Amino acid sequence: MLKQQHQVFVALLVAMDGVVIVLASFLAWLLRLALLPHWPITRWEDPPKQALVFFTVPVTLLTIRWFGLYRPRRDRSLLNEIKQMVKASVMSMVLLVPVLYAMDSSVFRSPFPTQRVLGIDVDTGRGQLAALAGILPVCLVLHRVVFRGVLRAMRRRGWNLRHVAIIGCGRLGQIVARTLERNSWTGIRVSYFISHQDYSKRVSCLDRPVRGGLSRLEAVMTESKPDAVYVALPMARAAALPDILRRLEKFPVDVRVVPDLNPRYLPESMAVNELDGMPILSYRECPTSGVGGLTKRGVDFLGALAAMVIFGPIMLLVGLLVRLSGPGPVIFRQRRVSLAGEVFDIYKFRTMYHVEDEEVPLPTPRGQTAAVRVLAKLGARRATIQRSASIGDIGTITHTLAEDRCATSEWTQRDDPRITPIGNWLRRTSLDELPQLFNVLRGEMSLVGPRPERPELIERFREDWRAYMLRQHVKAGMTGWAQVNGHRGQSSLRKRLQYDLFYIRNWSVGFDLKILWMTVFRGFLHRNAH
Hints:
Blueprint: H1 2-35, H2 46-50, H3 53-66, H4 78-102, E1 115-117, E2 120-122, H5 124-156, E3 162-167, H6 171-182, E4 188-194, E5 204-205, E6 208-209, H7 217-223, E7 228-231, H8 241-248, E8 254-257, E9 271-275, E10 278-282, H9 291-324, E11 331-337, E12 343-349, H10 365-390, H11 394-408, H12 421-429, H13 436-441, E13 446-448, H14 455-464, E14 477-479, H15 481-484, H16 493-505, H17 509-522
Parallel strand pairs: 3-4, 3-7, 7-8, 13-14
Antiparallel strand pairs: 1-2, 5-6, 9-10, 11-12
Helix pairs in contact: 1-3, 1-5, 3-4, 4-5, 10-11
């Protein structure tokens, strides 16, 4: 019965998508017709033919199916469906152009001259294609949003529900049940539990019945046939998973497996791929690989060029002021680490009296004493970290590393006597970092990403803090999610790392543009900048 209902819904959805595609095609054609008021229409098939309906409908529907948008995935979020629909619309236009060209369509051999629109000569055939490329995704997305809204309203009233069973009534099984209950828009309802133990005397879990243990799996599935099964075994029972899956093969139900993994150990979104029939779970990979990375590089290059044009006069003025502030180079270089552990020289305007390294003490007896004192603190902290790691005390590690950061900041404190007057102003306004635009142009850094760290600090932190090295899955950036949220200078390293990992998990070009926009208002002046 459920399969038949799904087929009905799919048929209805395909039909509605087809109507929407026809509507989008006619809207694009009407825009072209508005520019050509004397376009003759002599036969009934002229309008749909000129609107390209006979091509757009099959090509777009096949592309939507190719993107898996007709599969029964109730747990797919609306945002994910919108993204996939936009991709499908773009791909359908990419496929449509060569098809129309091969069929010698009128959009490429228009018998009418170009029309002048807003002072620009426009070929009406290609204009129709451009209009369709903009109208089609908008219409399809709006249609899917309305369709989802209607389905949610129906499911809230108890229609079109899907009843599932959960194997496992421990912590993970309860998380699955609460998550499904919280996302009621999916229409998925938990009917009962089956214990992950072979035998169980437990009769209820979260106000739902527990119908025995794994020894009664076949009997329970035969008595109460669910629409789907969620397998949520605790890690201690992971060895039983193959046998459970084998036993579930006897029943025509959908099976989903929820792994017992803490979200904090999933630093990035995982994907399942297949190689010659072998399933591969992508636990961690660079989020900017492929087309996304190419797009990010294009934004970096164009953005850096634009910023250099805008800030060019300011950079020349700052360079002159740094030259007048005392002897030493205008541009200061220091070794930093970026994507995949690559070491590069970062560029900054010099803000201190001339020394070899702006983050080590001046070669004076007082400076040497401060350096020895700080290194002694770091040695003691490291011993504490190693003791804490042996017993899994993450809180102690976090607190200790935060203190380490404060300890190292003794070398660059507020009102540090080694900082020149102009250097103090440059640090407070973050103008000392403008030369990093050259690092971005060279591809060593990005406009947006985690701030680059020094190699020696990374060597310490890679052993002390589990997730620290994940920052190197993207290029280091001039600004970042942590910086625009105030985590810079003498701030919590733990919080900074949390924001950096959030950025890596949720990276997109749109997220980068949002951070760049926020940088204009929050990235230059901040109380922690010094």
